[in-house]
Amino acid sequence: MEEINRARALLAGAGRIVTFSGAGLSAESGIATFREVQTGLWAQYDPTELASPEGFARNPALVIDWYNDRRRKLSSAWPNAAHEALARRDDLTHVTQNVDHLLEAAGAARVLHLHGRIDSDRCHRSCGFETPVDIAKPPSLRSCPRCGAPMRPSVVWFGETLPSVVWEMAVEAVVAADALLVVGTSGVVFPAAGLIDLAHRSNTSIIVVNAEPIRSPANVRLIGSAAELVPMILPE
Ligand code: NAD
Hints:
single chain, alpha/beta, Rossmann fold, SIR2/SIRT2 'Small Domain', 6-stranded parallel β-sheet, 10 helices, 36% helix, binds nicotinamide-adenine-dinucleotide
C-alpha cells in the first residue's frame, strides 16, 4: 500500500506525464504477450521467423497467416481498465510498443506507436503505399498495387529500424516529462527500452507497473496486474 501511495503522489505532483507501455498492458484484454504469443498452431515457429525480413523472404504466406490470426483475435478484443484509466487523462502522451489499437479504442488521443500498427499494411519495398486493414477480415498475401512488391503489416520487425519521426517525438516527450509511467513491458526490446534509461538520465520520476520485477531504473515499482494497479495510481 505504501508503494501505491508513493506512485499516486508522484503522478499527482507531475505536470507532464508520459506513459511507456508494452504487451502486458493489453494482456488482460486477451492479447498474448510476446512470450505467450507462440501458442497452439504457432508454437513450432521461432518468433524471429514470423517477425523478421528474413522470415518474410523465406515464407511470406506463413508470416501473413500468422499476423492475420493475431488480427482476427484482436478484432474481438476490448480495452481493459488500464487502457481506460490512461485514456481518461487527455493530457498524457502515450508511447507504446504495442501494435494494437486498444489505447485509441479507449479514447486516448496522443499515442506514439514505436513498433507500428497491425491494422495497417504497407509495401515491403517501401514505395510509400500504405492502406488500412479490416482486422476482422484481413487479406491474404497480396502485391502492392503501386509497385508489385509484396504487402506486409505496417509493424517494425526484428532487425528493422524504428520510424524516425515517431522515435524523435517519443524521445522529446520523455525528456520533457516529469513522470514516466512504465506499464507491462519487459524492458528488454531495444531501442524502445532505452526510453526508461533516458528518463532516468533526465531526472524524470519513473513508476513501473509489471506482473513481475523487471531490470530497469525506477523510483517506485508495483508488481501486479496493470488493469488493477493503473486505475489505482493515476488520478483522474
Ligand atoms: P514482452 O512480452 O517482452 O513483455 C511483457 C511484459 O508484460 C512482461 O514483463 C510481463 O511480466 C508483463 N505483463 C504480462 N501481463 C501483465 C499484466 N496483466 N499486467 C502487468 N504486466 C504484465 O512485451 P514488450 O515488452 O511489449 O516487448 C516485446 C515486443 O512484443 C514489443 O516490440 C511489442 O511490439 C510486441 N508485442 C505487442 C503486442 C501488442 O501489440 N499487444 C503483443 C505481443 C507482442
